[in-house]
Amino acid sequence: MQNKHMLMIPGPTPVPERVLLAMAKHPIGHRSSDFSKVIGELTENLKWLHQTESDVLMLTVSGTGAMEAGIINFLSPGDRVLAADNGKFGERWVKLCKAFGLNVEVISSEWGKPLKKEDFQEKLEADKEKTIKAVIMTHSETSTGVINDLESISKIVKDHGEALLIVDAVTSLGATNVPVDKWGIDVVASGSQKGYMIPPGMGFVSVSKKAWKAYETAKIPRFYLDLGKYKKETDKNSSPYTTPVNLMYGLQAALQMMKEEGLEAIFERHQRLTQGTREAMKAMGLPLFGPDHCASPAVTAVAPTMDAEKLRSTLRKKFDIAVAGGQDHLKGQIFRIGHLGFVCERDLLTVIAALEATLLDLGYEGLNPGAGVAAAAKVFN
């Protein structure tokens, strides 16, 4: 049957009908007084979501564009930085830093395992001359389903005193608690197609007062992604360049929905979906790729004892359900179920039941039919 596709990947994520209808409105001038009011509301609600009183800026980019903006506005070529790598997107931070001539020291953990706060502590405590200008990391590592201990690492960075903390929160913001001011995070990059519940095309960067001070002396060339321009115009409820008007209508509706649900309820829902998904996989005899204590609230990575790509293909063909595959060396070894944004218990029960039927079809050994749905239902109830 056509138009029954079910998107259960960690981005893009499902978009609510209320958001789609908002995006279907006729566009208006992005310099008009009516749209200025929209920008003002968006800015206020973005600060609410980030739990910050500092600036949150809207860019017409992907999450990677927001990450790039987080590098080039606050650092200079040759600056010494610590870049954390325990997955595909941590690896992307390292590549970005090297592309802009930074002096990169990589703190790494095996894919599927969290970063160790002790590795950061050792480097930062040894830096008596305060030459480390930034610590750069990913909060929720989408490629492996692992969440890093941002709260503990942020305390270590604050104790250093000099280094900025620059964070990719692309699949954590809107799915789990990221209190920007409380934790002292200086720069947070995120993207629209994840917890924000709108299509791809917008990036967001929050900037602390400490980061703005670093901006004054940063020497990496910038033009379109010069955040100083965005701050100047955002303060006037405007923008330096043409905005994606209809995406911003969608963002307006999505943030209104999030405020109606409430931050704590959003975080509890994502945690419940994560636990239900993981318990279902265990009951079905499907090994999880990462341990429970560092499970991402956005995505669950599963390592079946069979070709994961064949499983994904069969699930798509028989039930028109899309789950994500493994990246790089994990291709064919894992699949990933996204459960962030506009996702509820019914969605996960549907996916789990379809997955059980797919495993039966493929002759997966050790499967107890119905066990996955029962395990998830127990958590959800």
UniProtKB/TrEMBL annotation:
<dbReference type="GO" id="GO:0019265">
    <property type="term" value="P:glycine biosynthetic process, by transamination of glyoxylate"/>
</dbReference>
<dbReference type="GO" id="GO:0004760">
    <property type="term" value="F:L-serine-pyruvate transaminase activity"/>
</dbReference>
<dbReference type="Pfam" id="PF00266">
    <property type="entry name" value="Aminotran_5"/>
</dbReference>
<dbReference type="InterPro" id="IPR015422">
    <property type="entry name" value="PyrdxlP-dep_Trfase_small"/>
</dbReference>
<dbReference type="InterPro" id="IPR024169">
    <property type="entry name" value="SP_NH2Trfase/AEP_transaminase"/>
</dbReference>
<comment type="subunit">
    <text>Heterodimer of a large and a small subunit.</text>
</comment>
<keyword id="KW-0808">Transferase</keyword>
<keyword id="KW-0663">Pyridoxal phosphate</keyword>
<dbReference type="GO" id="GO:0008453">
    <property type="term" value="F:alanine-glyoxylate transaminase activity"/>
</dbReference>
<dbReference type="InterPro" id="IPR015424">
    <property type="entry name" value="PyrdxlP-dep_Trfase"/>
</dbReference>
<protein>
    <recommendedName>
        <fullName>Tritium exchange subunit</fullName>
    </recommendedName>
</protein>
<feature type="domain" description="Aminotransferase class V">
    <location>
        <begin position="10"/>
        <end position="327"/>
    </location>
</feature>
<feature type="binding site">
    <location>
        <position position="336"/>
    </location>
    <ligand>
        <name>substrate</name>
    </ligand>
</feature>
<keyword id="KW-0032">Aminotransferase</keyword>
<feature type="modified residue" description="N6-(pyridoxal phosphate)lysine">
    <location>
        <position position="194"/>
    </location>
</feature>
<dbReference type="InterPro" id="IPR020578">
    <property type="entry name" value="Aminotrans_V_PyrdxlP_BS"/>
</dbReference>
<dbReference type="InterPro" id="IPR000192">
    <property type="entry name" value="Aminotrans_V_dom"/>
</dbReference>
<comment type="function">
    <text>Soluble hydrogenase catalyzes both production and consumption of hydrogen from suitable artificial electron donors or acceptors. This subunit catalyzes the tritium-exchange activity.</text>
</comment>
<comment type="similarity">
    <text>Belongs to the class-V pyridoxal-phosphate-dependent aminotransferase family.</text>
</comment>
<dbReference type="InterPro" id="IPR015421">
    <property type="entry name" value="PyrdxlP-dep_Trfase_major"/>
</dbReference>
